[in-house]
Amino acid sequence: MPRVYVSSVLNAPAGDVWARVRDFNALPRWHPRIRDSRIENGEPSDRVGCIRDFRLQNGDRLREQLLGLSDYDMFCTYSMLEGPMPLSDYVATLRVTPITDGERTFIEWSAEFECAEADADGLVSGIGTDVFQGGFDALKRHFAR
Description:
The protein is of the alpha+beta class. It has a single domain (3-144), classed as 2-Layer Sandwich (Alpha-D-Glucose-1,6-Bisphosphate, Chain A, domain 4). Helix content is 28%, strand content 43%. The chain has three helices and seven strands; from the N terminus they run E-H-H-E-E-E-E-E-E-H. It has a seven-stranded antiparallel sheet. A hairpin with a 4-residue loop joins strand 5 and strand 6 (87-99). The N and C termini lie far apart (39 Å). The relative contact order is 0.24.
């Protein structure tokens, strides 16, 4: 089972970072690869079980389901239901942790999934670089203002 793990440090308080990323429907507001998003059936975006339906800038469509959300522990876990990548059983977690030395934030994003062995390296690299690190880089730019 391939695993992707990317972490970073942001120069902002963890509460501010969590406020920016916690909304399961807010990807277009902070991730540059996401064009639009909606929560199906008008459910609240913080209800475990809700499904977000979103499009990437290139037009690809994905559907993901919120599996867990904790404001206390500042994490969300979700699964991919549909997407353009040749994988299955995709489960990811985005976690925000305070760094007490200097009001900074440790942020990490991880995922595990099943795929053909021939696709594994490309998927791990693409998800890690384009999705996870791309999101972190956008957050760094936002909090540098």
